[in-house]
Structure formats: C-alpha cells, structure tokens
Amino acid sequence: MIVYWMTEVIPMAVTALIPIVLFPWLGVMDSKDICINYLKDANMLFFGGLLVAVAVEKWNLHKRVALRVLMLVGSKPKWIIFGFMVVTAFLSMWLNNTATTAMMMPIAQAVLTELDDNRKKQLEIKRTESRVKMAATLASMTPEEVDSQKKFSLFRTALKLSIPFASSIGGTGTLIGCGPNIILKGQMEILYSTSMINFTSWLVIGMPAMVLDLFFAWVIILFIFFGFRETFGRNKVESDDTANQVIKTEYIKLGKMTFAEMVVGASFLVLAFLWVSREPEFVKGWVKYVWLVGWLFVTDACVAITICVLLFILPSKFPNYLCFRRRRDADPPKPAPPILDWPTANKQMPWSVILLLGGGFALADACKVSKLSESIGQFLISLKNLPQVVVSMIMVVCAFVMTQFTSNMATTTIMIPILAQISSETCINPLYLMLPVTIASSFAFILPVGTPPNAIAYSYGDITIVQMVSRC
C-alpha cells in the first residue's frame, strides 16, 4: 500500500480503501471492524454500490440497456409505459433513483415529441383528404383533433409520472436500491447488534414485492388515465412505430459496445453474483467453501469496495502493449486510462446521501441513549391489544403520510427506533413492522417534494401539482 501511495498508480483516496479489500480477504480483521474507521459497514456497502453506479453512468451502459429493452416493447401507449417502467425499475435496483430518472426522462421526452409531431402530421393528412378549408380550421379544431389532443395529453402525463413512480418502486428491490434499505440494516445493527439482513435475504423479500408493486402501479396508471377498456379490453387501436423508430435512432447513436462498457458490465455481473452467493442462508455460500478462514470476515461492503478498487485499475481500452498488442495496431504502446478516475467519482458521487445515512445512524443512537424511543413506545403501548396485522398497517400508513412531506430516509430514521420499542412492548418480531415501513417510506408519489424523481418529472412543466395529487 505504501508503494501505491508513493507512486500514485491509483488515486490516493482509492489507495486508502485497500485495507478494506486486503485485511478481510487475508483474515487479518473483520470487515465491520475495519469499515468503522471509515464509515459504518452498511454505509460502505452503499458507497461501493454508488461507485459502481458512477462507472455505469460514465460509460453510458445504463442507457444502452434501457434503449435495448425499450426496443422490444410494443408501440401502443400502454406497452410504451410498461417498457419505460420496467427499465426504470430495473436500473433503480442498482443505480441512484435520481440519476435513473434524470436519464430516462429525456428519452421519454424525445419519444413524446416525435409521437406528437407524427400525430399532427396524420391529422393534417386527414384534414387535407377531407378537403376541409384551412380558414375554417384556424379558429377552432375539429372534434377529431380535440379528441386526439386530449388522448395524447393523458398519455404524456401518464408516461412522465410512470418513470418517477417506477424509480421509487425499483429502489425497494435490492438492499442498495435506496437509502431507507441501508438505514434499516444499519439501525438493526445498532439496536440488536445484528441486522439479520444481507443482500440475498433482502432480494428474496424485496424482489417479489417490487415486481407486484410495479405491476399494480402500471395497471392503476392505465386505469386512471385511459379507463377500463384500454387497460383490460382488446382495443383495435393501430400501432404507431414512431416511438420504436426514435428509440432505435437513439440506440444507433451509441454505436458499437465499447471495451469499457464490457469491462463495466462484467464487473457489475461479478459483483451481483458475489453479493447474491456470499451467504444466501438457504444454501451454503462461497465464504464457507473456501479454505482461507479469513474469507469469513468478508461482508457485502468488502466485496463492493474490492470491485470498486478494481475499476480504478482496469483499463478502459484494450491494452496495446506487450503480449496484448495487435499486429495492425499503429498507435504507440501506452497504458490506457482506467475505467474510473477520482475527479469523475468525486464529482458524480452523491456525498449528501452518505452524510444523510450517517446522520440517520447518529439520530438512532441518540434515540436509544436518551430513551426517547422508549418513551414513545410506552405512549403507544395500547397497540399491544390490537392484532399484529392492524399494528403493521397503522405504522405503514403513518410512514406513507410522513414520506409525502419529508425525505424517505428521514422518515425511516425517525420511525425505526420507535418501531423497535413498539415491537418490544407488543411482543412482535421487529422486522414484521420495520420491513413494511421501510418499503412504504419509498412510495412518495403525491407531491413533487416527496422524492427527487418526482421533482425531476415536475420540472419538465407538463405536470401540475393538482394532477399529481388528484391522480396519484
């Protein structure tokens, strides 16, 4: 490590992360004991996930995946919305929700612009064919044009609302998908000295719930904006291939898949595999099949930081020196720049989220030490006479209302210590209350201030607060 510091082969900030990589793998120290010198183990897991997301965003791998999937959906409005929601939710499982929404909204805007232009051209052709005098149509639109404009306006609003909704829902699918999930894991460690939550256990619960929530959200959006017949019936609306053409054009602009994209994609797949298979609970994970005792010290955070450090070492272009040099390569041999560089990582890393996580854990400690959560739990002791399902529903409703006006991370931070005390007073498994509340805190769909994805959708100017409140 001293050699790395002296030569600056990799950035000094990244060099400082090497103990998290080496000490657990070599059996020197447990990852949790090392990470506490930097951040909590849960925070380091989130930090590692964000760094991988920065690499994905830097090389536009997420955009390539999104456009490729969108090319496979149909060209009818409901299938376009379905395609955007599925892609957004999948990306939000691994990337920052705000970045995912910021990337998907311009694609949706381009599709809507082309569809609107094509719709107007088709109406103009029909108007010309029916020999309607232009003078008579300048002052007012025909009933057909009014109906077409109304339907397109509904489709535009539905599509632009579906993206932030899918982004919030997708974040609940994985442990690193959004901040509240990490807060739950970290506060469980504070309150009970063990979280009982890892990447795989969350995936088993969060993924099915996320898929169901996404499906119901899609159906509800269609029902609200297009009615029962469009949602469930077999309509005879002709397909418009304009959307597919726009998406295909955007995909062609990306060109062929680069070496950097392949490296990032492979690193992402390796990281996901290591996370899922490390300690899946229902079968023995790879940590129990290796001969090195030290591998038992490896946590999900250690795996994430290991891959992140490699991203600062792996080249972004195929090497052109030594045995890697191709015969037809005319460029002089030289090292290629790495996949990630520190200026890019430092600029795109949402440090505010890391600080929010730390503040949340500090607040949880304060609630425990000051016995504030115990006092609130005593105040709510009457809940023990209610059925467990009712208690859980009451807490979920409280979280859902709070998260509409405050950040989802703040909601989770405030409620989890209280839920811990309530579960103690009512003899309920704490996860029975905490998991639904954590997931519900991400479902801030009503106001633009609820989540950054909502604010991004609102900033495009096509959606009003009244529309969000009345239709969400």
Automatic annotation (TrEMBL):
One of its GO terms (cellular component) is plasma membrane. GO terms for biological process: transmembrane transport. Its main location: membrane. Keywords: Membrane, Transmembrane, Transmembrane helix. InterPro entries: SLC13A/DASS. It comes from Helobdella robusta (Californian leech). This is Citrate transporter-like domain-containing protein. The lineage of its organism: Eukaryota, Metazoa, Spiralia, Lophotrochozoa, Annelida. It is found in: Membrane.
